[in-house]
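We now fix the convention by which a protein and its fold are recorded. Here is one such record, which you should read through line by line:

>
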Amino acid sequence: MTTPRISQRRLRRSLLPVAAAGAALALATPAGAADVDTGLPPGPAAARAAVPAQTAAGWAAGTRSYLVITAAGDTSAVRNAVAAKGGSVFAHYDAIGVVVAHSSSAGFATAMRSVAGVQKVGATRTSDVPADAYSPTLPSAPGQSPTSLTETARWDMTRINADKAWAVSTGSSSVKVGVLDTGVDDRHQDIAPNFDASNSVSCAYGKADARAGAWRDVGTHGTHVAGTIAAAKNGKGVVGVAPGVTIASVRIAEPGTSMFFAENTICGFMWAGDRGFDVTNNSYYTDPWMFNCPDDPDQAAIIEGVRRAQEYAEGKGSLQVAAAGNSNYDLANKRTDSSSPNDSTPVNRTITNACVDIPTELPGVVTVGAMGNGNIKASYSNFGRDVIDVGAPGGDGAYGVYSTLPGGKYGNMNGTSMASPHVAGVAALLKSADPAATPAELRARLGSQATDTACPSDSRCTGTTAKNAFFGEGQVDALKAVGGTTPQPGRYFENATDVAVADNATVESPITVTGVPGNAPAALKVGVDVKHTYRGDLVLSLVAPDGSVYPLEDFADGDSGDDVVKSYTVDASSETASGTWKLRVRDIAAQDTGRIDTWNLTF
């Protein structure tokens, strides 16, 4: 599998196709807007009739959205001024002094900037507010497909020791993680056990819509992210990093475009603070600007409004975790941006480090870079000295992050979008272990417990092994988050010699155990990595030194998934530890073959 051309997308979405059953789908097309930016602030004059035609719902063609920033507290005077200057108040957040206003007047922003008490005013988009904002359509509830997949310890989970952490703690249900994304399929078999509908909402267009189902996925991205954080440990499908915590959906993506405008993000952070979310995951950047620059009045208002909302949420006890982006861009040395505005016609801009990726580069936010399967930066991942806080598996090349998809399905995605929820899950485990921990303390522990990862031979990676431009303070560690420790040396044995698995054949791979006195434990860990193009053909067993056979798994004949990367627990307490143990693999059908890549025993 090859990595396709990197795209600078607003959503930190997968770089590889999403496939529920191995089918290859094309990358999603960028969502364009009908408007073209003519340079007339804040949008095309042609879209702004002096007396626009009104719909029954109150929407007018040419309507744009603005952030009006004032002092925190009572915003009634500014709200009155909005109406007097040709606008309407769509939402307001008095606790942070932010008013979301709509207007079809080309001079609205200029007029509001002259109002006493108004600090900043900025258009949040260069395209019209959709009519759907005035009467939002509820996302459909997808039909659910049951799965025959059984849980495996996937490569991304073993990389951060999540599989070992689950033996210590799966997290507390009192810990709430908000998925600020395209929505979540709450009826998915791996998500429903941990889903909190009462704290889920849509923030599309910048105003909370708490109708049942408004939180559902208008794409696939949010459901995939939710599964990585907290898919239930229920024997089905996949397991999330923190399968015991509670997840809520805050849909901030707008239907049709999957865009995340500033007012949506503000609504999401305010909801997270007011609803007591302990952690939020943010795998996106705030549209339409990849970077917001403070010398532009519109973008300055966006920076201030979203910053205040994040600060409010953090003040209420919520830690924000965000994806660094998929453009292989040095965030510590910004020079150009050719992808913005992405809701109309992008232009080539010269920028500086004063311009920021929101919410990724806001103070207090944990910025996550993506790693492949190994101590490597994912090829697409953004980076930056003193910008990246920590790294986590995001997938690259042949290794994708496998997680939940709407309708009871599963599939692979690659991206910093996939790395960020691993960190959100570890943060949730930290909060479970120490309910009194503040966001600042959680942020510090994520870094201090991370596994130091040295720079590769790449001049762009500056810094030390302890902290550098590619991996920040290193790869997060779920086992340390729950207070566990890695197995002691001398109790771990591995055979990495490949053994071919032919059609309709039985093969074995041996491990000779020495230096372990007495009997094997009641929780002997058997780690398996078998490469195979159709695991439904496989039957796996552990053979003890005395010939006793311990069945590990007989995969369902219809399981068409690739490979077995999983950890099993075997009660081998009646067996002498020392001696030769074997992994037995039977292939019971024709056409597909594979190999035992590696396997291990932990006593």
Notes: The CA atoms of residues 204 and 254 lie 5 Å apart. Confidence is low (pLDDT under 50) at residues 1-10, 16-56. The first helix runs from residue 76 to 84.
